[in-house]
Amino acid sequence: MEADLHHLCVIAVAAAAQAGEPVTLPVRPSVDGWLRLPVLGDLFVGVQTGTRALSATVTERPATLRVGDRTVKLAAGGEATIWPDDCDSSPLRAPVWLRLGAADQTLAVALQTDPGSIGLDSFAGSDGLTPVGFREWSVVLGRGWRLLVERDPDRAAVVAATLTTIVPLRAACRTAHVSATSGDAFGAVAMTRPPDPMTAAAALVHEVQHAKLYALLHVVELIEPATDRQACYYAPWRPDPRPLTGLLQGAYAFLGLVEFWGSLTASRDPEIRRRAAAEIVRWRGSVNLVLDVLAASKAVTPLGRRFLGGMRSTMKVWQTVAVDGDVAAAALHSAAQHLMDWTSRHGGLAS
Length: 351
Fold this sequence. Notes:
Blueprint: H1 2-19, E1 23-27, E2 34-37, E3 41-44, E4 54-59, E5 64-67, E6 70-73, E7 92-93, E8 96-102, E9 105-111, H2 131-151, H3 153-162, E10 165-168, E11 179-181, E12 188-191, H4 197-217, H5 244-263, H6 270-295, H7 302-316, H8 325-346
Parallel strand pairs: 9-10, 10-12
Antiparallel strand pairs: 1-4, 2-3, 3-7, 4-5, 5-6, 8-9, 11-12
Helix pairs in contact: 2-3, 2-4, 3-4, 4-5, 5-6, 6-7, 6-8
């Protein structure tokens, strides 16, 4: 409870700085001496402070933020989002802004450093973004963004209108790509650096699907919360059992991916076409399987059933897409292997 209170105080201080409103509140830095301020960035207040509470004050004239004995000048409107030229001597590490252009569409996102700042505390953030790391992110996301704009410009427009923040995560290994969306910080996602442009574009589509559905679920109920307390259902994209809401989230995200991969089937690159075909076969059956489970549940509300109907209509388009036999066989084998592995760990499927 105390940790939540301090987190709310940090959010309030950052909001006051953005709005130019004077305020004084207690805040608690991390053990390494950094105070994570949403949008503003990371403020170093000294390792010697430990985790004890400090007083944070925003003043209006002059516009400053003072935490302990550290003071940072704020631009008009509280904007402190440009990384200082002399970043080694500055106490503030402001977010790095990444602006990617392709055709007439631009994606602008802030690269934050702390997953906890967007409500994803269980993930390990990167150890900071070096100039080399920034260039690597710029290259792979830039190429992924260009691919998305070229092949699916309407979906790219949705991504650009939704996504505001990416938190780079520390990769556990070089081959596994991980991404996640915050249900409480709309437009913010966390991910390891994608290994290639196709994975980058797919990750943007996937996480924005989650963000849209999270936003909708804040407004309407698609599944009765009182009857969705057990995580016991099979999700073809997860190693663990999931509740019904989790199934819906996954199905909606992978529906978006099926559409994205469908847009790549007309690519001139045979390797892209082959991967796209495999991904369509792998996930179209999985989405339909989950839609059947959801449709059979009494926990789905009338609005939820209407939503499922729209998803089924979308999926029908992709059921008849022709795929080479060897590609389809490999994709279906992967799906069957996932189901076998899941049942060996968790038992039979819930109905």
